[in-house]
Amino acid sequence: MAHFPSVRPRRLRENPAIRDLVRETRVYPSNLVMPVFVRPGKRERRPIAAMPGIAQLSPDEALRECEAVAKAGVKAVLLFGIPEGKDASASWGHREDGVVQQSLRLVKKEIPELLLIADVCLCDYTDHGHCGLVQEAGDLPRIDNDSTLEVLSKIAGSMARAGADVIAPSDMMDGRVQKIRDELDAAGFKQLPILSYAVKYASSFYGPFREALESAPKFGDRRGYQMDPANFHEAFREAEQDLEEGADILMVKPALTSLDVIRALRDRFDAPLAAYQVSGEYAAIKFAAQQGVIDEAAAVLETWTVLKRAGADIIVSYFARDYAARLSG
Ligand code: PBG
Q1: Residue 209: CB within 6 Å of ligand 1?
Q2: What's the number of CA atoms in the CB half-sphere (13 Å) around residue 166?
Q3: Mean pLDDT score of the chain, rounded to an integer?
Q4: So what's the pLDDT on residue 218?
Q5: Does the beta carbon of 121 sit less than 6 angstroms from any atom of ligand 1?
Q6: Number of structural domains, the chain?
């Protein structure tokens, strides 16, 4: 590059109005999605120790939470369920009166303008905590891909009937987007978009979420179906496959450990792209702030801005409710 001695980038930094004028990236409340954990009961709020400020909520409390989220300017929530019962076949996931289904109906009725995204996975509902059905093969339990697809598509169908606006499969089985698309189309939900967790790394940053959902695997780990954090190119194959199968929006997680992948996907595909700032990323900022070693608000706004700079259009964050209102034009 040529050397221009008269160029002084600092000229654009000292005056706040100029800084604002040349700012390349802005995050809006409408870019955010707030996750909500729902559990059975009435007037129940069970705080999650690993995630201060976040609780498991009964459907009526989830409605109050959604009201607060909407008031903060956030236009979308992502619902996860802690069901009344868990079993080997994840059958609580597709009950018409399941806890997520109830919450969807209630929130849809009371706040029709709020976009309801239903997470679809088996780990909320299986007694062993894995994201798929387990098949005993000799001594080694295996996650069976294809039988899992049947259950995932049933869960997706029941979420759609309950009022979900978007279906978000997070299981990482192969072929799930196609299977869910077929199910939704057949059930008359051709217009319902699929947000696929296309690039989901096996990550230590999901730890607090597993406490929140009581879904830590009882044996083994998730490396048999989630991606190895060492792999970059594999993200293209995952994204391409999901798009071919009918995914409308792609998601990457965790967020801050995947900035290279977010940028690369944004440059390569034109589908909308979401980044999920996961539970461990939330906890890391939260606990550091509680210890007084970082400024929580500044850290949150910085991470959101950087995710958008990297190419994310949509940011899923447990901080959405509390910090959306601080975003300004
Ligand atoms: C599993 C699922 C996970 C998260 C979202 N969906 C956890 C996992 O794979 O163990 C993690 C979200 C978070 O950590 O905030 N279906």
Answers
A1: yes
A2: 21
A3: 95
A4: 87
A5: yes
A6: 1
Q: What is the pLDDT of residue 87?
A: 93
Question: What mean pLDDT comes out for the span 77-92?
Answer: 96
What is residue 35's three-state secondary structure? strand
Nearest atom in ligand 1 to 226's CA = 9
The overall longest dimension of the chain from CA atoms, in Å, is 73
281 falls within a domain: no
Q: Where are the beta strands (DSSP E) in 179-227?
A: 195-200
Q: Decide whether any atom of ligand 1 lies within 6 Å of the 201 Cβ.
A: no
Here the CATH number for the domain that contains residue 92 is: 3.20.20.70
Please pick, among 200, 218, 286, 308, the residue that the annotation labels catalytic: 200
The answer to the question of residue 105 being in a domain is yes
Q: Is 71 a catalytic residue?
A: no
Instruction: Provide the residue range defining the domain that includes 70.
Output: 27-251
Counting from 1 in the atom list of ligand 1, the atom nearest the Cα of 206 is 14
pTM exceeding 0.90 = yes
Residue 299 lies in a domain: no
Strands (E) in the chain, as ranges, are 32-38, 45-47, 55-57, 76-81, 115-120, 133-137, 140-144, 166-169, 195-200, 249-253, 273-277, 314-317
Write out the two tokens for 167.
Answer: 């279906």
At 290, is the secondary structure helix, strand, or coil? helix
> Does ligand 1 come within 6 angstroms of the Cβ of 79?
no
Atom of ligand 1 nearest to the CA of 131: 16
The 8 Å CB, 24+ separation contacts for 140-148 are 141/219, 141/220, 142/224, 143/173, 143/224, 143/225, 145/173, 145/174, 145/175, 146/175, 148/122, 148/173, 148/176
What are the backbone dihedrals phi and psi of residue 123, each rounded to the nearest 5 degrees, phi first? Answer: -65, -25
Joined tokens for residue 199 = 């690039």
Q: Give whole-number Cα distances, 182 to 178, 198, 238, 311, in Å.
A: 6, 18, 19, 30
